[in-house]
Amino acid sequence: MRERQKLDASLSGVRSLESELADALGLLELAEADSDAAMTRESEQLIGALRSRAEQLRLASMLSGEADANDTYLDIHAGAGGTESQDWAEMLERMYMRWAERKGFKLQLIEESAGEGAGIKSATLLVKGENAYGWLKTEAGVHRLVRISPFDANARRHTSFASVTVFPVIDQTIEIDIPDKDLRVDTYRSSGAGGQHVNKTDSAVRFTHLPTGIVVSCQTERSQHQNRAICRDMLRSRLYEIELEKKQAETAAHIGQKTDIGWGHQIRSYVLQPYQLVKDLRTGVESRAPQDVLDGNLDPFMAAALAHAIGGKPREAVPDLG
Prior knowledge:
- The protein has helices spanning 2-33, 37-62, 83-103, 132-136, 224-255, 290-294, 299-309; strands spanning 72-78, 106-114, 120-128, 141-148, 157-168, 183-188, 204-209, 214-218, 266-271, 277-280, 286-287.
- By secondary structure, the chain is an alpha+beta fold.
- Among the domains are: 2-62; 189-255, Double Stranded RNA Binding Domain (2-Layer Sandwich), CATH 3.30.160.
């Protein structure tokens, strides 16, 4: 039923676009015949709006992967560099939260490890919304920041790195067996502000999957049982993502394409000093308004990355779909 509803929505969107375009072109012909400048401007504005809608439908058609429609987990980890990188990791966390707000998606903070003095060492977000994984999967990789450090008394320029990993939430119809012998389970006290809200029991849970070395943790729920259930779901999703990456790698090798998959690949640079520029290193898409990007305007980068991933060439200018 979900697949049928999605197809119905796609078809109705295209049919509506065709109908409105025919009306707008008819209005334009009438305006030109009557030499009505005001009506001509109105019809041209209508056609421009329809072009933007058509671009959105084109991008939506790219989100046809097996798990693209699913909710998603998003992991952020600070790189080496102490406070600098930890502050950058927190800036990325805020950027993705703002992007999700622009999309009308729901957010849940699954785990967050505070930095030493400022920022965060790591965080895991659960993003819920239509095609959440399809959009955010384009953000997986290493993000680089260049700026004058607010933590450097000598106001020197610093470069910081943080890693982003994205993996889809999978439903119960997908069977992934995780034997207990493959798991190491650690419990610990949840971190917090203290006072009356301090957690005095070992409710936080960390799973380590021994065959792969994958580590997931959750401390958002007060019950250890609930945190265990969330950790198991996250681990299933991570293992599923590994299988998807293997399939993508096999496909890329088969068709002779080189595809960067997973961590360890720098995908985007955010330069705040000595000039202002955000540049995606995969597609060449740029923005000279880094603060706008850090406020969540990521759709132009995501759209170009989707087109690049399916073999298309990113357009010179992708409209803000926020």
